[in-house]
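From the shared-data thread, chain only:
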Amino acid sequence: MPLSADMSSVIASTTQWLLRSYPVAGGALDAALAEAQALQAATVAAWLRYPTAADAAVVALVGPGGSARLDWITGADSYGPEVSEEPWRTWVDEVVASWAACLLTMPALTDDAVAALADCEHAAGVRLDFRRLTRPADRDRRAATLLRHPDLLRPVADLHRAALVRHLQGEQLGDRV
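Structure, as tokens:
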């Protein structure tokens, strides 16, 4: 799956955060399957959150905010000072992580979210294939047991779920403060 050049740091870092926060217990194949699902969820979430090249340029300029609050919510901040010193964590976007958590745990939202990408600039000219996210096989689900567990992801998903639902219902992101 191609990463949008302007969004690649946010997508990759948010994917990394999801995988570290909800680790895979299996081997290399399970890790690859879970990574594909987390990457697809982060991509859809980032493209929805920042649908235009201008939006992506702004987030690249000012930065997405980092993982500090997410780390606190999941308890990752208690692993020591080296956690906060990992540079990739500054490129984690809290809203994108929350929306990705929603997409991983709420199939009805996932289908609507992928359908909403049809008008997204990032998806122009790209063949969209988010099967591992929208139609995971049993093997995909087993590989990402923690990553798709609604109870475990609820604290993160709840952060910005309402905004995702409003956005998917057609409300522009700037319409509500």
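The chain is about 60% helix and 0% strand.
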